[in-house]
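Milestone M4 deliverable, item 7.
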Amino acid sequence: MKQIVLLFSVLFLSITTSLAQQHSIVGKITDAKDNTPLVGASVIIKGTQKGTTANADGRFTITAQPNDILVISFIGFATQQIKVGNQTSIDIPLQLDGKDLGEVVVIGSRSNQARTNIETPVPVDVITSKEIMATGRTDLSQILSFIAPSVNSNRQTGGDGTAHINPLALRGVAPDQTLILVNGKRRHASALVNVLGTPSQGAASTDLDAIPVSAIERIEVLRDGAAAQYGSDAIAGVVNVVLKSSVNQGQISMTAGGYNTSYTTTDDTNPRNYKRRDGFTLLTGVNYGFKIGEKGFLNISGQINNREATNRSGFFEYNNRLTKARLYWFPYATGTDVATIDAKEQSVDRTASSRSGNGQQDNASLFVNASIPLSPTLDLYAFGGMSSKYSVNPNNSYRFPNGTTTINSISSRYFPTIYPNGFLGENVARLIDGSFTVGIKGKTNGWDIDFSNTTGNNRIDYTIQNTINASMGTSSPTKFYSGALVFKQNTTNLGLTRRFESTAIKAYNVAFGAEYRLENYQIIAGEEKSYKNYGDTTYVTTVGGKTKAARPAGAQVFPGYQPSDEQNQFRHSIGLYGDVEAEVSNRLLLTGALRYEKYSDFGDQLTWKTSGLAKLVESGTGFLQNLSLRGAVSTGFRAPSLSQKYYSATTSIPQADGSLILSLVSNNDNNVTKAFGIPLLKPETSTNYSLGITSRLAKHFTATIDAYQIDIKNRIALTGTFDFNSINSSDPIVKGAAQLVKSLLVNYPDVNAAQFFANAIDTRTRGLDIVLAYRNRVGTGTLNLSLSGNFTHTEVQAVHVPSGLTTSASDEVRQYLSERIFFDRQQRGRYESGTPQNKFVFLAGYTYGRFTPTVVMTRFGEYTFFTTQSNLNSATGSRDQVFSPKTTTDFSLNIMLNKATNLTLGSNNIFDVYPDQLAAVNNQTGTTPWGTTGGQQFGFNGAFYYAKINLNF
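Output delivered:
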């Protein structure tokens, strides 16, 4: 702390140059032809990254010095540059001009030179607040997924903690291989590591939905490896969230909507139709900027998001949809057909055995963004906020009174005196997320200096309700506190940047800096009753008889974290970087970056990057006005997260026969992990290649096409489940593998299975990004068209089976453990085809006076669901299933009621499109038509109708 205070003092005392007094400028940006406000137009102080955007009335406020030059730009209009001087009010009409069909971006470069997204050496998408607010979606991760084709984010139904946090992935790789920034500063990850059968299994992602949408000015998505520039995690790219900085203006926004949908589930004989009206959502956001003195600002944003649950479950069939075996709810059902079974069996609600869809969520967040000049050349800035989310995930396997769904058996995991009809447990999470950045930046001796400290934390407390600990017998509670996960991060960094003019070349920019990061990961045990085995062993197993057997221990759905799971682990790292950006000429830009990082727990890493852009055509007139070639080569890395290294938990997993097994996720330092021969984790490393073209055609049309390849070595994955359920198998290989696993788990009598994190695979991801945009005056209005697409495919190149796993068994058993369990075909499928292989987004909008109708069509490509085996219950037919491409259509109509008020009416997925249903072999009981976990393309909730009103003041 003393060193930080000293560095602040030295930097403050070094600032001695005095420039002119800053003052506030207000203005209005309009279309010169008809005086229509240009909502979202960009205003940037030239040579800096300071700026703002125009509100719904076209107005903006910015603080600047008399010598500053304002750069005003908007897609499809000619950019203007205006010297501030003594002006306090400026009206700026912009002329249509196709050569400015690009957004000004700052991410991916430490130069202060403003460039559009067709002038950057790597691809960057800019998503404005206007685009964000135009959608009826309320979660930031979902908004990005439906706007940017290279971004993937799906809500999970089931998947335990993954249902509470929406992981976001870029270019088909893992969520934790995309770095998230806020105002250019690293944002902390969540405490959650995904461990239950989702496409993001094994990854620790960032909770983007903790950031209120009302606080966001724009989002920049850098689609290229950037670890040499920004450090660990930036293998696939960077998402930078830029917060609002406007003053003396505000906005209140309210969105209300819900699902109105119908769907049909089918079995062999009886289609069933459902109509649902549920999932009511109310989002309220507020933003206002206060002026502090003549120079500073304080921008405050708040948001409350209330979302009710949805349910898209099916009917629990009387006959197994595949084998035709009788499926009974209760163990004493009689008769041979539906008409003659007992009254209790007939009276039960057979749609209640599953709940597939969104869980209930209530999310409140508050963010601030502030800056106060300390001198004419030095600013103190701060930003950050808090969020609280209450999330209920009821999408777990129903505990039937008849646990095996056969006539003569009773479940060992329920008590009829507590739940006469069985029960569906609920996983409830309370998530608290906080972050705060404070820093100073300014100029001294020609250098731009930025020194900051960012602290962030994420805590998840789990409560399991509507459940029991069966080993306690009838005295079991029905609600348990299962413990908590905590992740904390503190990052201190210093950056210096300077632009030099040169006689040999046009100019070059030099930047270098350092970063120190401290991280802490905690697992906090739950209450004793949530995990302990209390030894009640008596339960009925045959009609009229009793026997002794073990009841499962711990709260069903999620046994609590145990004292043996508890962790409080720290690590630190230091990073040094330097980069150079050379404008060799007006037509050639070259860059280079080098970064060295050293971690306290695994060593050091050196990464590099080089990129360039060559303007082959720069005419400004005619059909082909601009044509550029760009490309980049870089190396990258991702340090193993503390959660991947130290996560430990025991989970109850229902089996096909109705029993439960307790599966241990064993951390990297555990003796069980060592007994299985799993080595310590090491960093993932990558090599990225990209090559693209950018062009401007016929004044009003731009196009970018970028190809990429991402090679990642030693990717961290969660292994398959090693269990000994097949210890009585007649197959000597299967039996031998089960005997070996049982011997390795001998010190864990309550655990039947184990999983581990390991540097399991090498992968190669290849793809193509296409972005086409057109904006022009058509008739008396403005037409806006865009088509963007992403093709991506990942291939597992190698599997690294630990040698320790294969040393204590026969050749056949070693091969079985390696190929069927350690990294099986289902896990391979998650990487290679568990998400859509392509996605296209087409947007058409037309602004005519006060009305702007917009249509957005999103096509999701096919994906394949793989299973660990080709057959189930000796039935004929593979369980693998290909899900066909689907297209959703969103429609909205924005109406400007007056200069301060906008009303939007719309529907997401207006044609009520659903993905393909699971085949009978994968949904034998009929309860989960679309599954609970896995690579869903766009969810399965159907059509969402909403109304939104924005009030600007």
